[in-house]
């Protein structure tokens, strides 16, 4: 099952990464000052990503 992991980076900021069922990191988030801010970032992705369109800017 995919999962979001919250961790602290070298600067002591909270970050998250999304891992696939095989353990591969498939997405990561920005640095947050608080764990609650990080959790809010995860919640925003969970809410908005299913509605996101794919925009190809390579053309």
Describe this structure in words.
The protein is an alpha+beta fold and 59 residues long. The chain has one helix at residues 35-48, and strands at 3-8, 14-19, 25-28. The protein has a single domain (3-51), classed as Double Stranded RNA Binding Domain. Strands 1-2-3 form a three-stranded antiparallel β-sheet, with helices on one face. 24% of the residues lie in helices and 27% in strands. The model has no long low-confidence stretch (mean pLDDT 97). The longest helix has 14 residues, at 35-48. It is built from one helix and three strands; from the N terminus they run βββα. The radius of gyration is 13 Å and the shape is globular.
CATH second-level architecture: 2-Layer Sandwich
Largest sheet: 3 strands, antiparallel
CATH topology: Double Stranded RNA Binding Domain
- Supply the number of helical segments: 1
In whole angstroms, how far apart are the ends? Answer: 34 Å
According to CATH, the homologous superfamily is YegP-like
Oligomer: single chain
Proportion of β residues?
25-35%
Give the low-confidence spans.
none
Number of E strands: 3
Compute the average pLDDT: 97
Order of helices and strands: EEEH
Strand order of the largest sheet: 1-2-3
| Percentage of residues assigned to helices | 10-25%
Shape: globular
Number of domain units: 1
Give Rg in angstroms: 13 Å
Structural class of the secondary elements? alpha+beta
CATH class: Alpha Beta
């Amino acid at each position: 099952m995919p999962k979001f992991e919250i961790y602290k980076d070298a600067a002591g900021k909270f970050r998250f990464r999304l891992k696939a069922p095989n353990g591969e990191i498939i997405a990561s988030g920005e640095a947050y000052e608080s764990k609650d801010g990080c959790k809010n970032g995860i919640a925003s992705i969970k809410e908005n990503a299913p509605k996101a369109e794919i925009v190809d800017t390579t053309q």
